[in-house]
Amino acid sequence: MDRWDDMVLVGRFGRPHGLKGEVLILPETDFPELRFAVGATVYALRGGTVVALEIDRSRMHAGRPLVGFAGLDAIEDIDALGRGDLKIPEAALAPLPEGEYYWYQYVGAPVQTEAGDAIGTVVRVEPTGGSGVLIVARGQEEVQVPLSPALCPVLRPDLIVVRPPDGLLDLNTPGPERRAHRHRDHLPRHGAGRRAGRGPRPGGGQRPD
Q1: N or C: which end of the chain has fewer CB within 10 A?
Q2: 100 and 190 in contact (C-beta within 8 Å)?
Q3: Rounded to an integer, what distance in angstroms lies between the CA atom of residue 88 and that of residue 44?
Q4: CA gap 78, 68 in Å, rounded
Q5: Residues near 142 by Cβ (< 8 Å), separated by ≥ 6?
Q6: Contact indicator for 35, 88 with CB cutoff of 8 Å
Q7: For the chain, how many helices (H) and strands (E)?
Q8: pTM exceeds 0.70 for this model
Q9: What secondary structure letter does DSSP report for 193?
Q10: Cα–Cα nearest to 106, from 95, 122, 88
Q11: Euclidean distance between CA atoms 67 and 58, whole angstroms
Q12: pLDDT tens, 75-131?
């Protein structure tokens, strides 16, 4: 089994629903109908151990997957899992068209301006409910860059070139208070992303999973 840190985030536990072991899922994937279908397996971290959870009940509720897991039929079973992340092995990711990448593949990518000035390195991608945001380490600070082809004309795992409006990189630099908040919330270290392309392409697609 893959190490937890090597797996790809596809969702998080939401609140339990009823008393029979069902729970709402907060998806972090472009494919919720696939990842949380009956018969699918996702993985959670329980007491430091990676546990496999087979989905044996699934339907949409309030626009989100509402699922139950095989052998977990009581609310106490769900509570014991906590409210953490749900992941899958990288090998389970669906292939993507050439030029599209999963978010996690951008982690470690060097970032520079169109003039060739280095900005930093992507340390994670945070979901926003839309296209996501690249978090770029620049010295001791972090810079937020919207994950948009309009702002990132080159968007590949080996190189990201940004075209920021004047002042955007400075405005997006979080202060110490914001960084502390981020750690308290235990935001995912990286999202789920896309398949690495073979050659240089301007822009490029991106998906959380």
Answers
A1: N
A2: no
A3: 9
A4: 9
A5: 123, 135, 136, 173, 174, 179
A6: yes
A7: 4, 14
A8: no
A9: B
A10: 122
A11: 4
A12: 999 888 888 999 999 898 888 899 889 888 999 999 999 999 999 999 998 877 677
